[in-house]
Design brief:
single chain, 219 residues, mainly beta, 16% strand
C-alpha cells in the first residue's frame, strides 16, 4: 500500500473542510474497502439533522476499536474522556496505546473491524474528529450520519440491528457489521484476521475489544 503521493497532497495546516483537502478525500482507496462491499464508494454528506452539504467523501469499511461499554450510561468516551481502564481498546480518545499495554495479549485483542456503510450511516476514510460512544462529532463534518465514526465502542454484537435514535445524550452504539452471512471479520492486534459469528456471546465479544480487562480468551 503506497499512498504517499496522496498523503503528501494534504495540507495539514488547513481543516479537512478546506476545498483543497475535501477534493483529496474523494479519492477511493481500494485497500480500505472490503472486496464483498457492493455499495457506493463515494457518498455525499446528506442533509441530516439540518446539515445540508454537497461535500463528498470516499468511504472505508474498516474502523478502529475504542473499547467496550456495557450500559448506555457508560459513555466516558462520548465526553472526550476515557472509558474505565479495564474497558479501553486501542483507540480510545487521545490514546497512546503501546504494545506493552496490551496485557490481554495481541491475539486476544481486536484493533480493527468491518463496518458496512448504508445510506444513513457511513464514514469517510479521510475524516477525523472527537469520537463519542457511538459516533464522532468531527471538526470537519466528515461524518454527519447516524451512528458513524472513525472508531466504534463494542456494546452490541456484530451485525445487530436496532432502531436509530434521536440526537440526545442517550446515544447508542452502532455495531460492527458486514455483508457476509453470519458475522464479521475482525483484525487482531497481532495482525491475524478472524471471522466472528454474529451469535458470539456478548461478553466474549466485548472482552475482545479491551486491551487489559484480564479476560484472556482463546478461540
Amino acid at each position: 500500500m503506497d499512498m504517499a503521493p496522496l498523503y503528501n497532497k494534504f495540507d495539514f495546516s488547513l481543516s479537512y473542510a478546506n476545498p483543497t483537502n475535501v477534493a483529496l478525500a474523494e479519492n477511493v482507496v481500494p485497500t480500505y474497502l472490503c472486496p464483498s462491499y457492493a455499495g457506493e464508494t463515494v457518498h455525499s454528506e446528506h442533509g441530516y439533522r439540518g446539515w445540508n452539504s454537497s461535500t463528498r467523501k470516499a468511504i472505508t469499511n474498516y474502523l478502529g476499536v475504542a473499547g467496550y461499554a456495557t450500559t448506555g450510561a457508560q459513555v466516558g468516551i462520548r465526553n472526550n474522556t476515557s472509558l474505565p481502564a479495564g474497558q479501553r481498546g486501542i483507540f480510545w480518545p487521545n490514546s497512546n496505546t503501546r504494545m506493552r499495554d496490551i496485557t490481554d495479549g495481541t491475539t486476544n485483542t481486536f484493533i480493527y473491524g468491518e463496518y458496512r456503510p448504508s445510506i444513513m450511516s457511513d464514514v469517510g476514510w479521510g475524516s477525523g474528529g472527537t469520537c463519542y460512544d457511538n459516533r464522532c462529532s468531527p471538526w470537519v463534518r466528515g461524518i454527519t450520519l447516524e451512528g458513524s465514526g472513525a472508531v466504534k465502542v463494542m456494546r452490541y454484537g456484530p451485525n445487530q440491528v436496532f432502531p436509530k435514535t434521536a440526537y440526545t445524550n442517550d446515544w447508542t452504539v452502532v455495531p460492527f457489521s458486514s455483508q457476509h452471512v453470519g458475522g464479521v471479520h475482525m483484525l487482531n492486534t497481532d495482525g491475524s484476521v478472524v471471522f466472528v459469528s454474529e451469535n458470539i456471546d456478548i461478553n466474549v465479544w466485548r472482552y475482545r475489544g479491551s486491551v487489559s480487562d484480564g479476560q484472556v480468551l482463546g478461540e
